[in-house]
Amino acid sequence: MIRYRASKQQRIQGEAKQVLTLLVAGLFLAGCAPPAEDTVETAEVLVFERLGMGHSGTVRDTVEAIARSAAEWETLQQAVRPMEPFREVDFTQYMVALVAVPTESGGYIVEVESVEDLDGEIQVSYVLNTPQSDCVTLAAEAMPFQAVVVRRAEGEVRFTRRIARYSCEL
Question: Can you tell me the distance from the alpha carbon of 130 to that of 70, in angstroms, rounded to the nearest whole number?
Fold first, then answer.
């Protein structure tokens, strides 16, 4: 019987085919695995309404707070000076979120964008609108703020700030 010896190139090609076959089989079997479970966070949107806003206050620190009682709200609203008086709030049904940010000049605006109950955590998202360099602003300390009334909910509160720059060009 005559035996032929395979060349080195033929051996490498054979090994490459084996590796390729194993890779294809592995990919095929991986596709047959049961799907991983997706975790879906369920957020309940809490409808809110503007209670008041303004540009001045009595504190020089950022205020991000929730008042769930008339007493808490009475204390909290002392930090800001609204453009119009705040209206009465029924704290058996609602709570108040207040966001105030100290700035070195005018032209800044605070706007609450959303309030959500995310599995027991209240998330208040707001935007700090910031003037670009083409805007003429008053060079004085300011305290832009917004207060919103929200349907009452229990849970820890987390505030999230987003900064958006706006232009004054026409």
Answer: 32
Helix (H, G, I), strand (E, B) or coil at 79: helix
Would you state the structure tokens that stand for residue 144, as one six-digit string? 């832009």
Residue 130: CB partners within 8 Å, gap ≥ 6? Answer: 107, 108, 163, 164, 165, 166
State which H helix or E strand residue 117 sits in. Answer: strand 109-118
Question: How far apart (Å, rounded) are the C-alpha atoms in residues 57 and 119?
Answer: 33
pTM of the model: 0.73
- Interval 43-69: pLDDT, tens: 899 999 999 999 999 988 999 999 999
Tokens of 55: 């540009």
Residue type, 124: V
| Residue 27: alpha-carbon gap to chain centroid | 38
The one-character DSSP state at 107 is -
Two structure tokens written together for 71? 């007493």
pLDDT tens column, 54-110: 999 998 899 999 999 999 999 999 999 999 999 999 999 999 999 999 999 899 999
* Residue 27 phi, psi (nearest 5): -65, -40
